[in-house]
Amino acid sequence: MSTQLKQAMSETTRTLDNLNFDNSYIRLPAYFYQRVDPSPLEATHLISVNPEVSKLLDLDPTKLDAESLAKFFGGHAMLPGAESIAMKYTGHQFGVYNPDLGDGRGLLLGEVVNQAGERWDLHLKGAGRTAYSRSGDGRAVLRSSIREYLAGEAMQGLGIPTTRGLCLVGSEEQVFREQIESCAALLRVSRCHIRFGHFEHFFYRGRPDDLKRLADYCIDRYFESAKAAENPYLAMYQEIVSRTARLVALWQSYGFVHGVLNTDNMSILGETFDYGPYTFMDVYQPAHISNHTDQQGRYAFDQQPGIVHWNLSCLAQALLPLIPRESLETELEGFPAQYQSHYLQRMRARLGLLSEEADDQQLIDDLCRLLTHQKVDMTRFFRTLCDFSDSDAMLVAVQPLVSDRQMLKAWMVRYEQRLQQEAASLPIRQMQMRAVNPKYVLRNYMAEEAIREAQAGNYKPVNDLLSLLRAPFEEQPAYQRFAEEVPDWAGWISLSCSS
Ligand code: AMP
Ligand code: MG
Known about the structure:
Blueprint: H1 3-12, E1 33-35, E2 44-49, H2 51-56, H3 66-73, E3 85-87, E4 91-93, E5 96-98, E6 106-113, E7 119-125, E8 140-141, H4 142-158, E9 164-176, E10 180-190, H5 196-204, H6 208-222, H7 232-254, E11 256-257, E12 279-280, H8 304-318, H9 325-350, H10 360-373, H11 378-386, H12 391-398, H13 405-420, H14 426-434, H15 444-455, H16 460-470
Antiparallel strand pairs: 1-3, 2-9, 4-5, 6-7, 7-10, 8-10, 9-10, 11-12
Helix pairs in contact: 4-15, 4-16, 5-6, 5-8, 7-8, 7-9, 8-9, 10-13, 15-16
């Protein structure tokens, strides 16, 4: 490497000791948060570090050492420039307003501005008790931390907006959930940790000035273009609605069930946020409930667009002091159409349909009915469609995934007719389909296997999945088994909120 290049690189890379912090949230009034240091976790060690995320912070992944990561993110030392706080927010949990929420176990360590001028929040999840912990212990367990860490990378790989993780730190400290489990800490990296519930807090406390202060902060930081609008708050809300509509449309297009869509788990940037008992479905089941404690199915897969719409109405309610009611109502009324348009767009792409035809919605709905009725593995079905030149060959290929050949054939005939209307040549269509139809998704059993190994001290599977899921559209023969039929025991996995 030339000296010049070396010099240029050393100017652009940083170490954990000199990250470029500029903490803007802490400049808001002191009652927006509680200043609190992380509580050190006992006997920490590094489990995994994500090289791609380290680059977002201008860190050179080859220079990150396990000891420093475990020290800083196990709560044993403060990163120079960090000023940790627990943010205050509230929210609607399962439809009921809870004023007592806030960061109960995660701390915003600060904001790093990288050389591209991007501002990234560093949030340490599992950092210990805060003023908002209520009866909680302030910790996160290894199981759920692995799930969140892997999910961030899986979503990113699919191109779905999400928070991510820089690293995962293990510990010998133990806590009780449904059983004794070991603790871990996840350093979450995202542009935003502001939730719908941040706004709800000030609305329900009757503090319109603070509500405005928070909105101004968000506009400055995230919605710069809203400033020029006649009502910048309305422009901000419009942007939140449209990002959120796109997000939930992508979830529905890929069979993702969030599991706990409370308003405190909704990011104002429309990112998948606060992973808990989520599922990428194996078999396509609209009524799938991911969280076994959600007995009513409030957050079932097919409820998500409606629930997200309802959550947006909670946010609208909270913004009433800043935005006329009629304008908010108009935006809310526009949500279903926005959602539907994003959903159609992605599902068309998954089927290799680049043009738009009036019957496409029907074709897609009927396919979803077929997948449901025949209990089809959605990911495998779509990926298989990419590999064949005509419907006869497709039929043979997808047949093993579907039991009722007649039903499948009837749909295939219509699909074939629809494909005739497409101008793209077959190789182009296949290439485009492979770019939106993953070969790999983070199935619950895959995470479960990695968790079991990690609990026994073997972190290789976590790290393997991290790199596999980063490129879910690529053929990765070493991991072929994850693209095949799921093992029987996958169906018995039960997930709960306890994390
Ligand atoms: P969640 O279900 O993870 O979205 O969390 C809902 C609320 O409970 C948030 O205010 C969390 O900070 C808080 N919380 C969850 N788990 C814990 C815990 N172990 N200790 C303290 N607070 C927690
Ligand atoms: Mg949460």
